Amino acid sequence: MNKADAGRVWAAVTALVVAVGIVVQLFVTAGNSDGYFPDNPDRVFNVFAYFTIQSNLLLGGTCLLLALDPERWQTMLFRVLRLNGVVCIAVTGIVYHLVLAGTDHLTKAGAFANLLIHTATPLLGVLGWLIFGPRGQTGYRVAGWSIVYPLLWLAFTLIRGEGTGFYPYPFVDVSEHGYGQVLLNCLFVALLFLALAFGAVLLDRRIGSSKTTADR
After folding, report:
1. How buried is 196 (Cβ within 10 angstroms: 0-12 exposed, 13-18 middle, 19+ buried)?
2. Interior CA angle at 3 toward 198 and 69, to 5°?
3. For 99-145, what is each residue's pLDDT tens digit?
4. Model-level pTM?
């Protein structure tokens, strides 16, 4: 198996792990009467408001496309979504393990889903990008556009929270911390995101340059 084929297999496995993690989480949520939304389908639909789930979907979707045909997806939109998937899943893993881990009480099935979407997919997503790329798909313009999705998620979360009173994470809970602290918290996360996005651009160029030199 050559590296290109191995990359497609890795991407397919990543997409599969994302799918399993999200499906298990949906079943866990559907069978759990706790939480802000007591009734289905509201409780299940609310799963998709979490940045964790959306970042997994971005990663899983782009990995699936790469597994099906890695040469076809060269558009600017795909390049932005690919970087979004990798950086967002990295932010998910970092923020969860540094800030949120241990704050939830999980069933065995919930713990399994949690392991997949907070630990396994960040590792698979980041390692897959580092090892298999594809290289040359990032740039400062791509990194700049990649901040649009997190800003849209934040705007959606705060507007929806005003109407429903629900905030998916403690650090964006306006009712508890107020807008000033929440915006400051989000600024730190945004800086982490930008650092990872622009760091990915530099790393992509270095890896690509090293590969070119090695191939000579």
Report:
1. buried
2. 75
3. 877 777 788 998 999 999 999 999 999 999 999 988 888 899 999 99
4. 0.89
Alpha-carbon span 186 to 183, nearest angstrom? 5
CB 153 within 8 A of CB 54: yes
According to DSSP, residue 1 is labeled -
Cα–Cα nearest to 9, from 84, 82, 72, 68: 68
Query: What φ, ψ does residue 167 adopt, rounded to 5°?
Result: -130, 130
Q: Considering only CA atoms, which of 91, 191, 80 is closest in space to residue 139?
A: 80
CB 182, CB 171: distance < 8 Å: yes
> CA–CA distance from 156 to each of 3, 55, 160 (Å)?
40, 15, 6
12 CB contacts (<8 Å, ≥6 apart)?
A: 63, 64, 67
Judged by DSSP in three states, 81 sits in helix
